[in-house]
Design brief:
By secondary structure, the protein is an alpha+beta fold. It is built from 20 helices and 8 strands. It has 4 domains: 57 residues, no CATH class; 127 residues, Beta Polymerase, domain 2 (2-Layer Sandwich), CATH 3.30.460.10; 190 residues, Hypothetical protein af1432; 51 residues, no CATH class.
């Protein structure tokens, strides 16, 4: 049972519901249960609570589990399903097809099919358009006369269902049977654009390249503050040695997650981040009137240096982004424990780092443990190890701070407040997410009320 075990984890009901949602999602993913209601009842009993999550919350965790369990295979299968949906929609183009369900939202799992809505008064025309391309199709007439189904047994290896509505219904906004809110769906043009965005050019194999960090030479004899006992160069080498030790002993320091770390950690990326994390310190060194040494903004400058190195090594776009994020955020998991950071600040690490959160956690531990100056205390070293353990628990147990489910969606904002600029929607949703994680509200009604207040504030427009 995943009880709350750290003072960094929120104690409000949303966090409790999250644990039930994760357990219910696992039951559904492994097909121990097929209905959301049954799964959530069993999950709540296992968690020892009466608080039940919404279907939306469970649905969100299903996607998270699928991504974690299936890794790259999940992304490849999702792209394959979307390309099959594109081919199908192109044949239905004159009837304004919309891709819906998991193929559009990304919430696919083993056994997911492709769902398309289109609008035509004569379903036989749709059947004729598909017959030559997919002869093994079945026409299923629904009891209600509002729509009819055309089922295709094999579209690129996936089952597919085309739901045909009357032409006059093409402007209606259907409701989602899982979340209860407006259904998310994509047009032919939107699906094409989505597939273009997910493509990435091939690059060289940077892992076999010879790493040359001439920028490290600038770090020699750059003195640091009282938390450090080494200059920037030697401190960097100590951090690299620290991550090498973790990798070399198979992450034995983390017995609860040793196997998972072996499988998920990218050793080369972790090493590279360790080399780059303080490259910005020589350019940002300054002194206070009292003589204290500071490196204000060194994370940003280090990230710029890391970007230059990433291009020199011809890292792929995704790997380049991961390296830069690790370097740019490397101080956050160091500062949060000592500053008693809010839960939303911890969640931001999961949001920005994604699957590279474990690398960031280990980098922060090696960084702190390489600081043995007179101002560093043993208690602080122990606190960092405790915080890293907490981050790994949240990541591998799919904790609330890893993947909270905001009870307000983009579609619901548009439904409640009408047309809004996209940047306004993004800002409001981010502000609401921070407030939700920090326990400022729990329900959709409270969230929409808070969104109304934000809309009245010019800073969110």
């Amino acid at each position: 049972m995943n009880k709350r075990g750290s003072h960094w984890e929120p104690a409000h009901r949303a966090s409790v519901r999250h644990r039930v949602a994760v357990e219910a999602a696992r039951l559904l993913y492994h097909r121990e249960y097929r209905e959301y209601f049954q799964a959530k009842r069993v999950a709540a009993k296992r968690q020892g609570t009466i608080h039940l999550p919404s279907n939306r919350e469970i649905h969100e965790q299903l996607l998270h589990i699928a991504r974690r369990m299936e890794g790259e295979e999940h992304a490849l299968r999702l792209e394959s399903m979307r390309r099959c949906a594109l081919e199908l929609m192109e044949r239905l183009g004159e009837w304004q097809p919309r891709v819906i369900g998991s193929t559009w939202t990304g919430h696919i799992r083993q056994g997911s099919d492709i769902d398309i809505n289109c609008y035509c008064d004569d379903v036989e025309l749709v059947v004729e358009a598909l017959a030559e391309w997919a002869p093994e199709l079945i026409l299923v007439r629904a009891k209600e006369a509002e729509y009819q189904h055309v089922r295709l047994a094999d579209v690129g290896g996936y089952a597919c269902e085309v739901t045909v509505y009357d032409w006059e219904n093409r402007f209606e906004q259907p409701r989602c049977g899982i979340t209860g809110g407006p259904m998310r769906r994509g047009t032919l043009a939107e699906l094409r654009a989505l597939l273009v965005r997910t493509q990435e050019p091939e690059t060289g194999d940077w892992r076999t390249a010879h790493w040359q960090f001439s920028a490290l030479e600038d770090c020699r004899e750059v003195l640091q503050n009282g938390y450090h006992h080494l200059d920037v160069y030697d401190h960097t080498m100590a951090v690299v040695a620290g991550v090498e030790a973790m990798i070399g002993d198979g992450f034995a320091r983390f017995p609860n997650w040793q196997a998972e770390l072996k499988e998920s950690i990218d050793p080369d990326l972790l090493r590279l981040a360790a080399y780059c994390h303080d490259l910005g310190k020589p350019a940002t060194q300054s002194f206070t009137r009292e003589g204290r040494i500071r490196f204000l903004g060194h994370e940003e400058v280090s990230a710029q240096r890391a970007t230059e190195i990433a291009y020199q090594l011809r890292l792929a776009g995704a790997e380049r982004g991961e390296l830069v994020a690790l370097v740019a955020q490397h101080m956050e998991p160091v500062m949060i424990p000592s500053e008693n950071g809010l839960p939303s600040r911890i969640h931001a690490l999961f949001r920005k780092l994604g699957k590279r959160l474990p690398e960031l956690a280990l980098l922060s531990l090696a960084d702190v443990e390489a600081c043995r100056g007179p101002l560093q205390s043993q208690m602080r070293l122990e606190e960092q190890k405790e915080f890293v353990d907490f981050l790994l628990d949240q990541y591998f147990l799919q904790g609330f701070l890893d993947n909270p489910c905001l009870p307000v969606s983009r579609e619901e904002l548009l439904e409640q407040f009408g047309a809004l600029e996209e940047r306004t929607i993004r800002r409001i949703l981010q502000a609401l997410l921070d407030d939700f994680v920090d326990g400022e509200f729990e329900s959709q009604e409270e969230g929409l009320s808070l969104a109304s207040e934000y809309l009245a504030d010019p800073r969110h427009r």
